[in-house]
């Protein structure tokens, strides 16, 4: 609605019908949602109009907005909590939506009104929470005006002590979350206002984290607030000091948690890395007084607090490693890897004889929460790998050693998924050097996780193939005949409603398979061309079989998934897409032979492209374009051949005129250009059926060429052989003889 004449009328209608006043009660809080929607949709508070607008309409609109603001200030001053809450909430919306001129003229009055509700005498908690949210909106809008930075810092300074007192109160999670959001807003937009209160803020946040009274969502916001403290100064020392405090606090909590569950030497080694001999000990996180208070609380219920404390501190570590920072800082990679290793290496096998005093209840509690702690440790490793990329090269051996040792014992789906994701990032960021060391680990575990998608007709289990060598696979002619029959059966097979290969009912199991396919895709992308022996042929066979079986029952419908832990549950369509992505990597990754399952892959991509409007169809269309060079190798530009001729001329002068090249012939004469559909069938023919035609030379080189002549290979009728072919060697030697 752009008619300026209607906007003041609609605004007055909202005030009359939905906004309470002194005489009328507040009917339904849910009606405020409609009011906010109308305000934002129609921009009823913007007071913007074209220059040609009648001045009378502009005055009328300004009068309506004045009436709106006065009503809200009256409600915010009400003694009735519901009316006060409504006025405060709508005042926050007004801070966002009003014109710049009105905001600059009124924000000081609005700030004073809102500040009074978070200071003693205390109002109800939901009024305080609404006040914190509206003040956050006001400060965010105020930060957008460069000329108000100084005044904004002055106003934000007034909020620090009241907000810290709010965090010290016993209240609901919603109240604490709004107070923390306000504190984070101040630190983000007006950091200078917190500098004088840095130690107080750190102590308040630390006490709240260690208290054990907060939910997971509040602990996450506390962690975010703690990670913002180094940005107040923005220098290298502030970041390093906070990171060291967090790591030392994690190590202290691990000492209490794993007493009797790990070797003592491991904890001592980690402490030496965190605090080398001769280095002066740091103040604990939050200060010495806070440390003593935390210790007293922990003595009352140590087992219940360990996991929540460790989880939050590890989250802080991950956040500091992945978030941006104004200056470059040194990352303590060894310390992070050592702490993660302490958690990952605990598996219950260590004897407790040296610590008989450890209670059975504590031991059971630690073991029950150990998967969660190991997940957070893997996230720390993931943050290191993601944050440093190729700069991790000096420490990558320690990370690989830790992951390979842990992966063999890891069985829970959420942990295997995280390990796969770390391996994937390692492969893509570090390149082929890491692929050499990780290929065996990735392939072995991927075969184990994907073995349920083996060839159901023959009862094949991919776990058997994982240790097979290339020599155990069928020879070239047998493989080609097998491919032809598999292609025909795939083309003749209609889509069926039910899948022949049982779809995993557990979403976690499906997620593991998707993660395994993504890791294989990364391995083929980076290290597919490695002359590594057996794993490439086995992986190619695995991927074509998994993709074929995943798509046997037709293409999955892309429906909305169920959300668990704020992450979408993988659908069958996601698994099909992951299988096709890995298959395309298998086809495109360079190898010692041409792709052995190109025909089957093309058929899958063509079928998938028919599912118009889906992600699968879009990707299959992309895949067909990507493999175009494999389908039509003779369609490559001829510039390469001319450059090859130029190279030969540059090395040996001019090619002798008496050197002739004959076309390659087959048993039935010269081959006519094949159609696109017949090209792959010709690839399936055995090379032994080709007729060898010698290359003729001049008489003075007859004896030499008799030893080196060979059949010219290649699809084109006339070509210069390269050095890798017998003909190419003969030409090179002949040219050298002529130069001599």
From TrEMBL:
Q: Which InterPro entries match?
A: ARM-type_fold, RIX1_N
**Upper classification of the organism:** Eukaryota, Viridiplantae, Streptophyta, Embryophyta, Tracheophyta
Q: Which organism is it from?
A: Abeliophyllum distichum
Mark out the compositionally biased spans (Polar residues): 701-716
Q: Which key words tag this protein in UniProt?
A: Nucleus
UniProt protein name: Armadillo-type fold
The record's subcellular location field reads: Nucleus
Q: Name one Pfam family in it.
A: RIX1
Q: Name one GO cellular component term.
A: nucleus
């Amino acid at each position: 609605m752009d008619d300026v004449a209607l906007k003041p009328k609609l605004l007055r209608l909202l005030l009359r019908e939905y906004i309470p006043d002194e005489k009328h009660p507040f009917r339904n809080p849910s009606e405020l949602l409609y009011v906010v929607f109308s305000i934002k949709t129609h921009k009823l508070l913007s007071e913007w109009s074209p220059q040609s607008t009648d001045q009378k309409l502009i005055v009328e609109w300004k009068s309506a907005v004045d009436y709106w603001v006065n009503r809200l200030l009256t409600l915010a001053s009400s003694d009735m909590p519901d009316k006060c809450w409504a006025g405060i909430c709508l005042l926050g919306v007004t801070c966002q939506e009003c014109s710049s001129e009105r905001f600059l003229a009124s924000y000081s009055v609005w700030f004073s009104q809102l500040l009074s509700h978070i200071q003693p005498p205390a109002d109800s908690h939901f009024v305080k929470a609404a006040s914190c949210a509206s003040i956050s909106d006001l400060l965010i809008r105020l930060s957008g005006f460069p000329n108000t930075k100084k005044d904004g810092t002055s106003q934000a300074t007034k909020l620090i002590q009241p907000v810290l007192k709010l965090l010290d109160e016993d209240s609901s999670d919603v109240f604490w979350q709004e107070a923390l959001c306000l504190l984070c807003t101040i630190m983000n937009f007006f950091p200078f206002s917190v500098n004088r209160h840095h130690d107080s803020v750190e102590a308040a946040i630390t006490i709240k984290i260690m208290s054990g009274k907060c939910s997971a969502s509040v602990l996450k916001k506390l962690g975010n607030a703690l990670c913002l403290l180094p940005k107040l100064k923005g220098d290298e020392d502030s970041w390093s000091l906070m990171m060291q405090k967090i790591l030392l606090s994690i190590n202290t909590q691990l000492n209490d948690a794993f007493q009797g569950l790990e070797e003592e030497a491991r904890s001592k080694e980690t402490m030496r890395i965190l605090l080398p001999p001769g280095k002066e000990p740091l103040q604990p996180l939050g200060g010495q007084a806070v440390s003593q208070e935390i210790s007293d609380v922990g003595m009352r219920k140590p087992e219940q607090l360990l996991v929540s404390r460790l989880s939050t501190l590890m989250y802080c570590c991950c956040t500091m490693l992945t978030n941006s920072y104004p200056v470059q800082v040194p990352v303590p990679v060894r310390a992070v890897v050592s702490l993660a290793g302490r958690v990952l290496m605990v598996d219950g096998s260590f004897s407790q004889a040296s610590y008989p005093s450890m209670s059975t209840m504590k031991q059971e509690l630690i073991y029950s929460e150990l998967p969660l702690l190991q997940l957070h440790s893997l996230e720390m490793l993931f943050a290191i790998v993601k944050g440093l990329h190729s700069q991790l090269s000096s420490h990558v051996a320690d990370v690989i050693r830790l992951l390979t040792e842990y992966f063999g014992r890891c069985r829970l789906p959420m942990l295997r998924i995280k390990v796969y994701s770390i391996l994937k990032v390692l492969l893509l960021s570090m390149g082929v050097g890491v692929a050499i060391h990780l290929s065996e680990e990735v392939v072995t575990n991927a075969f184990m996780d994907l073995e349920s998608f083996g060839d159901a007709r023959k009862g094949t289990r991919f776990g058997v193939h994982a240790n097979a060598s290339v020599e155990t696979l069928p020879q070239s002619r047998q493989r080609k005949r097998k491919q032809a029959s598999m292609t025909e059966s795939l083309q003749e097979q209609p889509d069926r409603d039910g899948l022949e290969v049982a779809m995993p009912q557990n979403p976690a199991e499906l997620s593991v398979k998707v993660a395994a396919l993504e890791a294989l895709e990364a391995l083929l992308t980076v290290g597919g061309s490695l002359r590594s022996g057996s794993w490439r042929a086995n992986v190619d066979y695995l991927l074509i079989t998994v993709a074929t079986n995943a798509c046997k029952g037709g293409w999955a419908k892309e429906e909305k998934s169920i959300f668990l832990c704020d992450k979408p549950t993988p659908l069958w369509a996601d698994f099909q897409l992951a299988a096709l992505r890995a298959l395309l990597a298998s086809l495109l990754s360079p190898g010692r032979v041409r792709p052995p399952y190109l025909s089957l892959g093309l058929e899958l991509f063509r079928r998938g492209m028919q599912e118009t409007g889906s992600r699968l169809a879009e990707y299959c269309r992309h895949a067909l374009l990507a493999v175009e060079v494999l389908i039509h190798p003779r369609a490559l530009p001829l510039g390469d051949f001319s450059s090859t001729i130029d190279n030969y001329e540059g090395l040996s002068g001019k090619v002798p005129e008496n050197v002739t090249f004959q076309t390659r012939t087959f048993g039935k004469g010269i081959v006519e250009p094949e159609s696109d559909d017949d090209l792959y069938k010709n690839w399936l023919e055995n090379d032994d059926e080709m007729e060898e035609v010698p290359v003729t030379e001049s008489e003075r080189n007859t004896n030499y060429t008799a030893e080196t002549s060979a059949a010219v290979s290649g699809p084109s009728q006339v070509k210069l052989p390269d050095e890798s072919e017998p003909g190419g060697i003969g030409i090179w030697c002949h040219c050298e003889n002529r130069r001599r």
